[in-house]
Amino acid sequence: MPKACADLLIEARWILPMSEPGLLLEHHSLAVQNGRIIDILPRQTALQRHPGAQLVQRPTHLLMPGLVNAHTHAAMSLFRGFAEGLPLMQWLREKIWPLERRFVNAQFVRDGALLSIAEMLRAGISCFGDMYFYPNETATAVAEQGMRAVIGAPVADFPSPWAITPAEYLSKALSVRDEFKGHPRIGSAFAPHAPYTVGDDTFMRIRTLADELDAGIMIHLHESAQEIDESLARFGMRPIERLERLGMLTPALNAVHMAHVSAADIELARRGAITVTLCGESNLKLDNGAPPVSRWARSGVTLGLGSDGPASNNDQDLWPEIRLTALLARDAADAAPPLSPWQALAMATRGGAVALGLGDEIGTLEAGKWADVCCVNFDHPAMQPVFDPCALLVYSGSRDLVSDVWVAGRQLLGDGELLRLDWPAVRERAQHWARTLAAA
What we know:
The protein is of the alpha/beta class and 440 residues long. It contains 15 helices and 16 strands.
C-alpha cells in the first residue's frame, strides 16, 4: 500500500531523530502530513515520492526534535532581574511572593506568557511545562500562538492572587482542565507547589483526582537543603519519603529539581518510576548547589531538563542547560562515565517529553509523532569544522544558531524571525510592566 503524500518536506544536511543513540542521517528529508511525521527518507527519494509538497531546504542545517522545557514559570519573565543575588527562601518570601500578591493578575500572566513564548521559540523550544497562577491565561496564549505546552494548575495551602483555599485551587484546576480538554497542543496537570506549602490532606486529594483523571502531577522537590531540614523537623522524614508514604510516587509525577538527594532518595524515585527534571542553572543561581547529574544518569530514572522561571535563571534557553548538565556529569569524584552528547540532548528532547506525559507524541522525529522540529544552522564560526554534529550541539550550540521551529507542522520561527507572534506589541507590554514594577 503506497504511503500518503506529504504536504511538507523539510530537507537538511543532517537529521538527528533522537530515536536511538548514534543515528544521524545525512541529506535526508522529513515528510509531514497534517502536522504529523509520515517518513524520513533520502532527499531525492522524497522529491520523487512527494512532488506536490511544500519544500523547505536547509542545506547547512541540522533538524532535530523541538526542545522540551520540562519546567518553567512562563509569566515570571516579567520579574526577570528584579530581585538578584538572594538564596531561594529569602528570594521567595521577601521579594517574589510580596510582588505576586500586589501585581499578578490575568493580564500580567498573559503578557508574561507571550514574552516567554517569544523567547522559547527563538531558542528552539517547541513545548514547555508550566506552573503558575492564572494557568488558563498561559494556556490561551499557547493556543493562540501555535506552541505546545502542559499547563500545571498550581495548588497550595496558602492564599495567592489566583485562589485562597486548597479547595478553590483544585476547583479552578479542574475548570482549566475541562476548558482545554481535547486540545491537540495543550495538556494539563496538577501542580502542587512544594512539600513545604502543601499539606497531607491536599496531597491525598490531588492523588485521588490524578488517578481518576489519568492526569500528570508536577512539583518542586528536594530543591534546597533547607527544604529537607524543615521536613525532617516537621514530619520526621525527608520530603520524598513523605510523598512515598502518601502514594504520590508514580509515573504520573514529574519531580522538579531533586538537587539534594541521598542514595535512598534516588532508589525511591526509581522504584516509583517517577520522572525527574533537572534545573541546574537555577539551582546554582539561587545558591542551592548543583544537581548530582552523574548519579541520576546511572539511576535509570527518566530525566528531563527545565529552565525554571526566568526570574531565577534568568533565561528560558535550554542550550546552556544542556551544556551545563553534560559538564556537571563529568564529576572527578564519581567513577561513572561521563554523559555522551546524545544522552545530554535526550534529556532536552525525549526525556522532557516523557516527563510531561507526551513521550508517545513528541520528543523524537519518528513516523506518527507530531512534527515538532527545531532547525540549527551549522554555517557559523562556532560550528566549524564539523567532526561530530551531536557533540557540537551540546558544547557549541546556542539559541543564536536556531533558524526555524515547527510545531505540529506549522512554522512558527523562520530564518530566525517570529512568524506569528507580534513581537513589538509583546515588547511594549513587557516595558509597561517594567515601569510599573520599578515604581513599586
